[in-house]
Structure formats: structure tokens, C-alpha cells
Design a protein that fits this description.
Blueprint (H helix, E strand, L loop, with lengths): L2 H68 L3 H12 L1 H12 L4 H8 L3 H11 L6
Helix pairs in contact: 2-3, 3-4, 3-5, 4-5
Length: 130
């Protein structure tokens, strides 16, 4: 066995190990590529979900602002009613609503507006059973 044969065998071993290393590296790269595709797909789904949540949140915010605007003067009106008639008549209307009085009766009996009587009846009246 001479030096050329040893060098040829060493070159063959190095070449074979390089080939095995390249094949292993390609396999690892394919695995990483599959993982990247899965992450990108998941990221797209998360983006769509986030867009949906954002849309719902914006709609809810607009509704909340509309409700706040519609009922912004309720506290002031309640205070005016209490000052005008005294809290005693409102308390009596609440007691009457708890006993089952309808808004029409509350309007007649305690001088509440139709809206006030509806509010008292809804908040304090008996629950209708189905």
C-alpha cells in the first residue's frame, strides 16, 4: 500500500462524508422550509382573525358612543324630575312598579312622562315570564 492509495482512500472517505453531510443538510433545510410555511400560514390566519376582532371592536365602540350620546342626559333629567316632584314620588312609582303597575298607571298616578314611566317599569317592574 503506497501513499497514493492512502490518499485516494482518504479522498474517497472525505468525498463520501461531504456527500452525506450535504444530503443531511438538504433534509434539515426541507424541514425548516416546511416549518416556515406552516408559520406563514398560521400568521395569515392570525392576521385574518385580528382584522375580524378589530372590525367587531370598532363596531362595538361606535355602538357604545351612540348609546352614551343617546343617554347622556338621563342623569340630568332624573335629577330635574327629583327636584321638580321630589324623590318621594319617584320612590313611590318604583314601589308601584314593583307591585306590577304598568307605565300608563305610573304616568297618571305620579305625573311621570311616558319615557320616565317606561324606564321605571323596565328597571323595577316585574319580569314577564315566557
Amino acid at each position: 500500500m503506497n501513499i497514493n492509495t492512502v490518499l485516494e482512500l482518504a479522498a474517497a472517505v472525505f468525498g463520501l462524508s461531504g456527500l452525506i453531510s450535504a444530503l443531511f443538510t438538504m433534509r434539515v433545510l426541507r424541514g425548516w422550509q416546511a416549518r416556515c410555511l406552516a408559520v406563514e400560514s398560521s400568521l395569515s390566519a392570525v392576521r385574518r382573525e385580528l382584522e375580524l376582532v378589530t372590525s367587531v371592536s370598532m363596531k362595538t365602540g361606535r355602538r357604545l358612543m351612540r348609546v352614551e350620546h343617546q343617554y347622556s342626559g338621563v342623569a340630568d333629567r332624573v335629577e330635574q324630575v327629583e327636584l321638580r316632584r321630589g324623590a318621594h314620588s319617584v320612590d313611590q312609582a318604583i314601589d308601584s312598579a314593583r307591585r306590577g303597575a304598568d307605565p300608563g298607571k305610573l304616568t297618571q298616578q305620579f305625573g311621570l312622562s311616558r319615557g320616565e314611566a317606561d324606564l321605571v317599569a323596565r328597571l323595577h317592574g316585574r319580569k314577564k315570564s315566557a
